[in-house]
Each structure stands twice: as structure tokens, then as C-alpha cells.
User: Fold these one by one.
Assistant:
Number 1:
Amino acid sequence: MQTHPSSESLPPLVSSLVAPLPKPPMEALLSTLTRRLVARRPDLIRRLGDVVRVPIAIVPDDLPHAFLLSLDPDNSRVRICDKSRIGDARAIVRAPFLALLGLLDGTYDGDALFFSRDLRIEGRTEHVLALRNTLEEADLTPGEFFGLSGQSADWVNTISDKLLGQVRAFAQKSAHADCSRQKLS
Amino acid sequence: MRSTEAKQMELVCPAGTPAALRAAAEAGADAIYCGLANETNARNFPGLNFSPEELADGVAFAHRKGSKVLVAINTFARAGDVDLWREAVDTAAQSGADAVIAADLAVLDHAASNHPDLRLHLSVQAAANTPEAIRFYADTFGVKRVVLPRVLSVPEIAALNKEINVETEVFVFGGLCVMTEGRCSLSSYATGKSPNLTGVCSPPEHVDYTEDADGRLLARLGGFTIDSFEAGQAAGYPTLCKGQFTAEGKTGYLFEDPVSLNAFELLGELSKAGVTALKIEGRQRGKAYIAGVVGAFRKAVDSLSDGGDPGPAIGALKAFSEGGRQTAGSYKKTWR
């Protein structure tokens, strides 16, 4: 069942640690994995319809960078850029990082996140809707994203679930501690 | 006249994608309704719905799990271009679906004439809410079930059931249309499109949102600002029926606030009223919604016979509701 994602924002320390990491290797890895996923699942491109090749910005509130995603049958790309440099995007999706991950893996419902104001969208609403519905159908597990199958995929999924659970619990604790500090001050 | 002897009501659940269909079947849906990826169904949104192949696969999966599949072909066929709707009925029949949900007379006629073994349900879009109208559809096309508009109270449903000999299905959770379905054109005044013609209420290409520096969210439809939400205030769908209007110096919600239906507390009364099936709205929603809502209502329906406590599961559904609020809608007409 859904918890409240706004209580799952990553502590600012995480953003500070991520900020200096080099972008090109991460871009290359994410782009390659996305291209392989699209090659394995051509049904996803069909479902995207008019959104193919349309750049959409995914902006985690609690990380320093934005992800500019462009899905294409042959040349899908994920670009990591400063939040101030997403001018190319036809639509923008903003939410806490763990909420965005929860949308990917089906933990959260997009409309519910919109109602609670954890998720905000700007630009072409129809593009966001098509991407959201395509990701819903992708039923994406970490194992599948890494192109694994069978036992190795199960192993990666189990480890990822546990890790993500711990990160969520840590984020919630951190948020509650912040809240208590604010009440005392 | 139908017997109103209480038996377990069927839980009819939404699926906008094959993944959602699988989630609904796994969560205990008795039946799953879905549509083809075109304007023949009233949830014709980008990225949503099924190809003919996905539909056939989905039917096979659902049947293995013990769930039925109902295919919504419930928009009104375009004059001079009825083939798309006829082909949709043929596709549904070929997929092995258990029933078609239709509203248009031409669609019903095509199904009854060409697929006599295909069960027909009358869509809520037909807005049939009188014994005379329902009997017409039953006698003419062999309709076996009618989905009732969300404008009737429970006593009105009980009275109606005593006068008809077809099954009735009512909405119990999800988005709340406050108009008599099939007769609402509000969306078309702002966008040129409506649920009945093109399968979309507030089509997304006409919707946009902006958030100002104070965190206030403005929702626009067809260029008209139709609602605003202060920072932290729960938001709703960008529909005109739940928009704010200003008249004579006063601004407020004219038809309905942003709110969703939850008729959980009325399940016992609906059963006694002779209702056959309970419908959950939300083909546009994600797997988390499907699993959460279907699972909770599975417990709720089962609790009518096994005495379980579905309260906590139902209580947790508030987060899925528009504006973070719920209502029993017209089932309890407290304003009368």
C-alpha cells in the first residue's frame, strides 16, 4: 500500500554526494540499458505513439540533476543535465527521487501522487500521460532493466527490493527527525 | 422480475494495460473490463488500452486466473464511419472475451446480429435508468446486464431492480461523474472533444498545469483556467464538472468538489437492493491503484459472507482519491 512519498525525500547529504559524480559514464550506461530495453520490448515504442523521440525531463526534487529522456526505436538517449538546462524538454515531471522510482516499479499510482502534489507536471500533458502509461505496461523490474533473466534477474530484484526498502525507511526516519527538529526550534 | 435474494456480488475491475489486467486478476477480480486502443472506448488516452493481440493474451491470462474479461466498446459510432466499432466487436468476440459493454444502438445491433453467443452489457454511457429503457435494450438486443448511471440512490436502485429482469452493475469506487453519463458534453465546450464521441473527457492535449512561485497550482483546460490549488492542498482532475466558477462575485465549485466515490459502507444495502455486480472505476490508473483498490474491495465483498474486517484496507484507499476526499455520491442523496 502506498505510503506518503513526500515523507520519503532523500536527505540533502545524498544530493551533496551525488553532485560531483561525473555525468558522461552514467549517461552512457543509462542510454545503453534503455536502448537494450527498447530493443527487447518493441511493444513499448508502439504504446508511446507520438511521444517517440520527444524529449521529456524527469526532475528529482532531491537530487542535483535532471534526466532528459528521449525514447526512440534505434537511438534512445538519457542525458543528465543541470535542472536549469532542460529547455529542450516538451514536458517536465518533478517529484522526489524515490517517488519517481516507485512510479517505475509500480509501487505508486501516478494520479495519487498528482493528487497529493508529490508529482508535478509541466508542458505537454499528453506526453507525460503516454510515458506514464507505457512505463506502467513495461512492468519494469531492475533485473529487466539490466537485461537479465531467470535466476540472476530474481537475485537482482530481491537485492534491489531490500536495498530500496532500507533507503525508503532511512528517508522516512530522516524526514521525521527533521520534522521533530523544526517543531522544537 | 429479478429475484433479490442476496448472493455474493461480482467485483468488476478496471485495466488500462495488460500489466494492469494481470494485477487485477492477481488481486481477486471476478471480472476485468478493458478497451481497445482507439476511439471505440471511453478511456481513449495516450499509451492506454489493448491491441487485438494483447486483448487475446489478456483474456487467456484472466481465464487461467478465474476472471472474466468484459470489453468496453462504449462510445457512440461516428455517422458514416461505423466500421471501426463493428471491427472492435468482432475483435472482442474473436478474443474469447466474456462480454462486450456497449451503448450505441448500431454497436449493440451488430453484436446481437453477428455474435449471438456474445454476452451484452449495457454501458453506463447509454444512461438507461428507467425500467422502460432497460427493457427496450433487453428485449431488442438481448442485453443481460445494465451498468447504472451514478445518479440513483440505493432505494431507487432497489425499486428499479424489482421492475426489470436483467442484472444491474453499479460503481462503488473511483472517479465520480456527477452528470448522467452519456449525456454530458461539458468537455466539448472547452476542447471540442467529449467522452461519448471521441472517448475522452478533458483530453490531455488540452490540459496544462503551472505552479506559481507560492506553490499554487493552476489547472487549465482548452486555455481556460478551471481550478487552482494552494500549496499543499490536494489536487483533482482537470474536469469542468469539478472546476471552480465565479458568478455574482462568488467563486466556488458549482457542480461538485474534487472528490472520488467510495460506496464501501453501502455494500450490504446494495446487495439487498438486488445489485449483481460492483464496478471499480479507473482504467487510467496504475498497477498500485488496481492492486490496492481491488484487494480492499475483494476483502469487503467477501466480508459480507465471512464476517472479516475490511476496514483498514478500505481506509487506506483515501490516498487514491481525487482531492484526498471521498463521498457516497448519489447513493445517499443527503441534499434532498
Number 2:
Amino acid sequence: MANIPEELRYSKDHEWVQVEGEIATIGITDYAQESLGDVVFVELPNEGDNFNAHDAFGSVESVKAVSEIFTPVGGEVVGTNEDLNDTPEVVNDDPYGDAWMVKVKMNNPGELDGLLSAEEYEEYLKSEED
Amino acid sequence: MTDQDLKQTPLNAAHRELGGRMVDFEGWDMPVQYPAGTIAEHLRTREHCGLFDVSHMGEIHVVGPDAIPFVNHLTTNDVTNLVDGQAHYSALTYESGTVVDDLLVYRFRPERLFLVVNAGTQDKDWDWIYSHRGDFDVDLSKASDEYCQIAIQGPKAESILQTLTDTDLSSIKYYHFAEGEVDGVPSIISRTGYTGEDGFEVYADPRKARQLWDTMLAAGGYGSDTGILPCGLAARNTLRLESGMSLYGHELSDKITPIEANLGWICKLKTDFIGCEALRDLKEKGPDRKLIGFEMVDRGIARDGFDIYNGGRKVGVVTSASPAPYLKKNIGLGFVSPELAGTGNEIEIDVRGRMLKAQIVPTPFYKRER
């Protein structure tokens, strides 16, 4: 079963969000990295880019496939994880830690209300498998 | 298509027990990878040994006095060049010279040949072959249900398989085969493969597939860091791509001739086969496109179907592309206009709207040391 930390919020596109003040840190979930397989390439936006909620802000590629990543909340990109350029495999090894992808200064923290709790995300994964 | 409609090889349960991630491949329920992952499976095959279930491939017996003339009538390569116990790579072509399928032709005896065709095309191939039997004195029979096929590939393949058979494997040359026993199971042991490594493909009674699979895993030290690994379709594809080999539906199809796909060497144009005239003409006037290998220069990964550009003009299309786990480069095959096909030429690949630089390089991208 996929690892789903209690303290994070989740999107149905399999991103996780960690909130500190007005900054949301975003990455992809354990389930997402497991589904992709060996991650070999991560493409991230530039600092200063602005996105609306649900926009694609980058992509994650495995040997076999490419998958877009969507920001669950809108705002300005204030940080990106440059380490993933050289060590994309960290996405497989530590999806919730060292493989964070972007930090977004949220325009509308109310968008967080549309995200799933850990328990809801687990339920969602189960329903997807059926 | 639901799971129930998918065809299964006799090793389906083994794949599931090993944690294989199952996907629909051409109507077959097949493992795309096991828990070790595609990169580990690919590297293990290059450095040690990989085990592949390829039982979904199709087999056809061609038996009778006219076996050789019949297969020579249908395929591009020249079967009269084979000796008993030898196989070659060939293609079934239409009158237009485009490809029905690519295949291996095995010669047991002059009056007994054995064809191995692709999984997804085997019904079409059978219909094509059967409809052309004409006055040839041959018996044709579908044999796909008579055989499992297990490929053991990599530098350690011979030493591992040798522990399971009395047949002297060192005496089987590349693209030759022997009939023998593997773990007591009557088998065709063929020194062939689709990985660019040394190795064998073993054909046997499908009821013995599980025994052979489990025995080969055990003999190969499955579970140790340098032991054999079961490999899924994703590694099979990256291994063949690194080795510059064609895949039907990509580099070859009913719209592509072997000449365009750099397979002139399997087209013996002095023989008389269906499509030979078209291929002779094409060879004389030169094809309009040529298959090339490329390596990404810019950071980014090309994928099947992406467009190829040169100086802002579309000049071709990618047929297969992927990260190359052993070479640690992003590579691909594709068709371009012949005047642009020279090694060293720069092209651009349209990667989801971004024009990324790539360079044409010689194929195979990877060649094992012999």
C-alpha cells in the first residue's frame, strides 16, 4: 500500500501539498512515483512564473512514460528544487521529502479546501483501483 | 477490454507472484516491469543476466517438399542460404514491398521450417501465409499453442543455462539452434535474442513453462545482487532500442519497406519473392526517407511519434525513443529525408512544443564486446 503521510493534503492528480503560512510546497505522491516507475527526468517551472490552480506546471518522466504535474493551488512560484535536475531518482526514493518540487506563494488559500485529507486520498486510491 | 478478454501466457501466475505490473500488450496480459524496475532489469541484462517470457510470440510450422521454395516466395531473405540448425531474420512483404511482419525463419531440415512471428500480428500473418500456399507442396500449421518461449539473455546466459542441459551450448553459434533438453524438458535451444546481448531463446511445451522459468531463475541466482532478474516488456523495449533493432509497428509496418528501415541486408533481391520487384525499384531510385538513430543534445526526452525538424521545416518523425539506461543518454530512431540522414547532422525534436536539439549518430547505439 502506498505511503500517505497524515499531515499533508492531496489532489486527485496525485500531488501532495504542505502548507506553511502562505507558502505551499508541492510534490507528487508515493502512489504517483510507484505508478510511473523509474523517474529519469523532472521539468520544473521558473521562479516568478504564475499559475492558476490545476494548471500543468511541469512534467515527470520515467523510462516508459511522461506525466504532467498540476499545481493544486494557484500562485507565484517562489522556489524550485534544482537538485532534481541531477538526481531525478530521488522522486522514487523520497517523494515526500527530498523530492519536493515547487514552492508556491498562494493567491487564494481557500483553494486548499478543495484538497483531500490523507484519509480521503486513501479512500480515493481504493476507489480508483476498483 | 477487460482483463478476462486478455490472452495469457502459461507464465501469467508466475509474473503475478513475482510482483510484475501487468498491462495489455497487443491483447496479451503481460508484465511491463517487476519490482526491481526497468532500469535495474535493463542493466542486469547488460551486465549479468535477464529472463524474459516471450511466450506470446507466434509460431508456425512449414513442412513438406516445397517448404524452402514456399518460404522463399513469401520472405525477403534467402532460405537456401540456411543450413540445418540455423535461423535468420527476415520479413514477410506485400507486393508493394511494405512489411506484413518481421520474423525468424528456423531450418530444421530442408522440408521442415519453423517461423516465429510477432504476437500482435500472428493472425494476420497466418492468413497471409495460408492464402499464398497455392500449388506449393507444404503443410502449414499454427504452432503458437504448442510452445512457450523463454529468453535468457546477457553475458552469463550461457553459463547459467549450461547448468541445466547436456547440450554443449558453446557449440551453438549465433543464430544457430539445437534440439535438446533443459532441466529434462525437450526444448529448442536457439542462440538468438532481442537485447543486443549473447543469450538463448528456449522453446518448449507450454505445460513445462513454469518448471523452466522457476529452474532458470534458481540456476541464475535470482535474489542476489548479481543474479538473474526477470525482465518486463519495458526493459525488452529499451534493450532492443539501445541495440538499434526494429520493432514492428514502429520502424517497420505495412507502410514502411525494409529498404527504408536499413534492412537491405535481409532483402536478397536476386531471389524472387512477393514484393521483390518493388524493393528492386526502390533500391535503384533510392528511398524518400531513411531510418536514422539520434541522441538528444538538449536536456529532454524524445518519445515515439514526435516530429523531427531541420531549420524550422518538418523533415520526419520519431518511430521509437526513450532514455537508454545503459548508455545514460536519451536516444531514438526515426525517419528523415535521405539528404539529412548523415551522421553528425543536427536535427530538432518537437518535444511537446519545445524544439530540442538532437544529433544523428550511428546505430546500433550500443554494441556488446565480443
